[in-house]
Write a structure and sequence with these properties.
heterodimer, A: 111 residues, mainly beta, 5-stranded antiparallel β-sheet, globular, B: 116 residues, 7-stranded mixed β-sheet, 4-stranded antiparallel β-sheet, 0% helix, 49% strand
């Protein structure tokens, strides 16, 4: 059974204090690993897709990396507006197989 | 920027009543999904829909649930007889893997369903 585990569950950072969120996964073949941002009461907002080990993608203060067993979302010099829940999801190969989500990491950035 | 839109944003219903949640996926997308998120829990897959039929469904998607694409733009989720445990945020999503390498699903803002 495909599984996604995210850690920590919650993270509190001072503005400017860089850190990383972890996503460990077990999947029978990986088509893609996805990072989403979710604000309270809203739908997941797409951030990145990673397809193969060693791949990295960046967007503003965020950088996502992928190995064969886990992915990291690095946040550099975060701002209060980066506060959200960050969700990791995996998709097995073939067709439009559904996403399997982790529980997310709730990030709070304090000014 | 194209987006997935869902209506209503909040629905309160009595236990045993039928509800229909509505979604307008991104117009050139071919795959449609419903997910749900019970408060404080993971986003869970319910059903996927392609070429006018269900392509995959989870154990949650039992006989009380149905999906339909009644016209070229709408995609609906019907819960025939709601239970208290159906209270959750329901998200519609769409994707178009055939257009390129990226296969990400784009999500709507959700419908908060409260069963009382």
């Amino acid at each position: 059974e495909d599984q996604v585990t995210q850690s920590p569950e919650a993270l509190r950072l001072q503005e400017g204090e860089s850190s990383s969120l972890n996503c460990s996964y077990t999947v029978s073949g990986l088509r893609g690993l996805f990072w989403y941002r979710q604000d309270p009461g809203k739908g997941p907002e797409f951030l990145f897709t990673l397809y193969s080990a060693g791949e990295e993608k960046e967007k503003e203060r965020l950088k996502a990396t992928l190995t064969k067993k886990e992915s990291f979302l690095h946040i550099t010099a975060p701002k209060p507006e980066d506060s959200a829940t960050y969700l990791c999801a995996v998709q097995a190969p073939s067709g439009n197989t559904p996403l399997v989500f982790g529980k997310g990491t709730r990030l709070s950035v304090i000014a | 920027e194209p987006e997935v839109t869902q209506t209503p944003s909040h629905q309160v219903t009595q236990m045993g009543q039928e509800v229909i949640l509505r979604c307008v996926p991104i117009s050139n997308h071919l795959y449609f999904y419903w997910y749900r998120q019970i408060l404080g829990q993971k986003v869970e897959f319910l059903v996927s829909f392609y070429n006018n039929e269900i392509s995959e469904k989870s154990e949650i998607f039992d006989d009380q649930f149905s999906v339909e694409r009644p016209d070229g733009s709408n995609f609906t989720l019907k819960i025939r007889s709601t239970k208290l445990e159906d209270s959750a945020m329901y998200f519609c999503a769409s994707s178009d893997p055939e257009q390129g390498i990226d296969t990400e699903a784009f999500f709507g803002q959700g419908t908060r369903l409260t069963v009382v």
